[in-house]
Specification:
Blueprint (H helix, E strand, L loop, with lengths): L2 H17 L14 E3 L6 E3 L3 E2 L10 H16 L4 E3 L7 H8 L2 H6 L1 E6 L4 H14 L5 E6 L5 H14 L2 E7 L6 H10 L4 E5 L11 H8 L2 E5 L6 H5 L17 H10 L6 E2 L6 H10 L7 H12 L1
Helix pairs in contact: 2-11, 7-8, 10-11
């Protein structure tokens, strides 16, 4: 069973619920939940689009056509935030080629700096802006804390010069979360990107409360644990309580767990398939789980 099988099962349940007068897919046409960036008050949709993996393709039409469709569906569905990185091989170039001028104007583009040395960092960030055809990027993050102090100095200068709107840091492992916390405590940042999910809730203990206290926006990577969470619910029907949070698939349940934390600004799952993208967007509509239902979600993954 893959994620598509899980989604199809959820949609079958949704159709039955709709027919019988239940919640069904009632959230499909609603607006996306938005969250404020603490440092400015700007609102962005709580569901973004990651590019690691699916957007790392070549130049052929066969490879790029599905991604063009994903971008069209993303913006049509109310999305804005797109997260990428020079680390993701061709992803920045693919985005730059596929986004229309209207998409670029509307997009909140977040990329990263991932190299050593001030000069190399400037060259890399300048190239990112050129590839994505955006002279002013919305967010640049120090990827995996590599050469952190060097790049933060450059990023602060760029922010003062109007070359970037927000600055931040990232990592993708639980082991790095104590270091992320140390950086947040000593540095003035706009964003932190971290891993968080129903099976890896460690950030709830210190990092998420700290980000809220320090006024740092939070982007969540790996909300599906690279797809392993779908294996954990293989063969399980959606629980009856899914309708209480307007969820019609396991993917929506997993994302709603993440978005339910008040410190989370946005989740950024990557996908190259329109049906996955639309399912993800639906998670940012309707109701979110309370602590009791969050515990039910964890229980469904462990029993």
């Amino acid at each position: 069973m893959n994620r598509r099988d899980v989604i199809v099962g959820g949609l079958t349940m949704a159709a039955a619920a709709t027919t019988s007068g239940g919640a069904g897919a009632a959230t499909a046409s609603g607006p996306l939940i938005t969250r404020r960036i603490p440092s400015t008050g700007e609102e962005i949709p709580a569901l973004g689009l990651g590019t690691s993996g699916p957007f790392e393709v070549g130049r052929s039409e066969a490879e790029r056509a599905p991604l063009k469709a994903v971008l069209e569906a993303f913006f049509a569905g109310g999305g804005r935030l797109i997260d990428t990185s020079p680390m993701y091989s061709t992803a920045e170039a693919v985005l730059g080629d596929l986004m229309t001028p209207a998409m670029r104007e509307r997009a909140f583009i977040a990329t990263k700096v991932w190299t050593r040395g001030a000069r190399a960092g400037v060259q890399q960030m300048t190239k990112s802006a050129e590839l994505m055809k955006r002279p002013k990027l919305d967010l640049i993050q120090v990827h995996n804390l590599l050469d952190l102090d060097t790049h933060l100095k450059t990023l602060r200068a760029w922010k003062d010069e109007g070359r970037v709107r927000y600055i931040g840091i990232t990592h993708y492992t639980v082991g790095a979360q104590p270091e992320l916390a140390k950086v947040i405590e000593r540095e003035k940042l706009d964003f932190v990107q971290l891993n968080y999910s129903a099976t890896t809730p460690n950030a709830e203990q210190r990092l998420l409360p700290l980000a809220a206290d320090k006024g740092v926006a939070v982007l969540v990577n790996r909300p599906f644990e690279d797809g392993s969470m779908f294996n954990a619910v293989r063969g399980k029907p959606l629980p009856a309580w899914a309708s209480e949070i307007d969820a019609t698939s396991w993917g929506q349940i997993f994302l709603k767990y993440v978005l339910a934390h008040p410190a989370v600004t946005a989740a950024i799952p990557a996908t190259g398939k329109v049906h996955h993208l639309e399912d993800n967007l639906a998670a940012a509509r309707g109701r979110l789980p309370d602590p009791k239902l969050k515990a039910e979600i964890v229980g469904a993954l462990t029993t």
